[in-house]
Predict the 3D structure of the following.
Amino acid sequence: MSTVEEAGHLPGLAAETIGRRIVAHGAWGETVAVALPELSGDQARALCDHIRARARDTLRGMETARIVAAIDRASACLLDRTHPLRRKAEALLPVVTGYDRETVRLGLTSTLKTFRRPQLLRFLAEDFSNPGMLDGFQPAVKGGLVRARGPDLLLHVWAGNVPALPLWSLVSGLLVKAGTVGKLASAEPLTAGWFAQAIAEADPALGECLAVTWWKGGEGGAEAVFLTQAECVMAYGGNDTLAALRAKVPITTRFLPHGHRIGFAMVAREALDSRRTGPLARLVAQDIVRYEQQGCYAPQMLFVERGGPTAPDEFARHLAHALAALASRHPRRRLDPGEAAALAAWRSAHEMRALDSDGRSGGATLLGDPTDPWSVVLLDDAVTLGPSGLNRSVTVVTVDDLATVPALVAPHRAYLQTAGIAAAPARLVALADDLAGSGVTRITALGRMTAPEAGWHHDGRFSLLDLVTVTEIEASAEAAAEGFAPYAE
């Protein structure tokens, strides 16, 4: 049975004038036909004008508390499994993305819980000592007054490797009162539009201040209009894609790229006893299985320290067992030919390493069968950080001391972001300090690598502060104004 679903959210444009490109998703008898909006250059310009005007006339005057309340209501709708949009998401996203239904259900809930009112307030407080500066001038610590304004037109160019991932930047834009246009990814073109619809239901005026659309990259037309009209462009994707996009953005436009990253985990000897080993392995397995390591924060390599009650090779076997157990509850999505080839090449390289080592130090041990929907490779000696084959493949690297890991990951500084660590408090802080020097920007617990907290500093940046322009009234101007007041006479 085939379903047709219209993607996007396009206020200010007559629905009957919008062209659509039908893209089929799914296989094996269950498909979804997604109707992606295709705008002409004139329609793109009209949409930009509409969003910019609403941002200036409506959004600027909204209290931040009102925006928070609308996002909270939209999130509550999509958290309600009886709501039509949530039912639609649970029915269609597994077909569109290939992820199993339970993974989609749990992933949606986890993401949406991040955008409830308490979490949004933490998000604001993390970046602004006084969030009131988004509503008007506030006293500055150094004297004078200060306020922050988001761009009149903020363009998001989203990747589609993880469902609902666009909501992070969409919410960030709304919180700083930016007129927002988001570009859908063909791989997951639905969630952002549904969320925008929920925002419009919660607060129709706010719904007029954001749009969600699509265009085929590199074809000019609408793309050129959006890239030249935006005051700020926030983009996600591979480095080549981002470099090509940057070349099209005017030099005066703020460009905030988020490229591919590689995550890793570390387990200290004090965490490896008979009571903790099994649960820790299950937590690592959850981070690996959740969205098949497609997110930039998922672990691809695991450094395990010698000297604990449980040896690294035994931990690797626990991890393999945990991955096998999860495979029955969360079946791996079907791989496309390119993904299957990459995974096979990764595994083959380690098979050759195992043969070449001939039992010598530095050998590789492969756990599991090639037909298993997961792969664990155990390396006897420390190696520098490297990518896995993704899709439930991980390398377990034995180290004598976790203190050596920062040097092993430092060569990939440009690609580092998340490290999951299981260690005692003093060692956690010491390791974190060294990892920060190597380029790691987020350190979290095992099992939480793929679930960032509200207000996290994506790639080490301030999610909201990077979007705003700050205007200051210096103390001198404030003092001088006193001389012109009626009471100065």
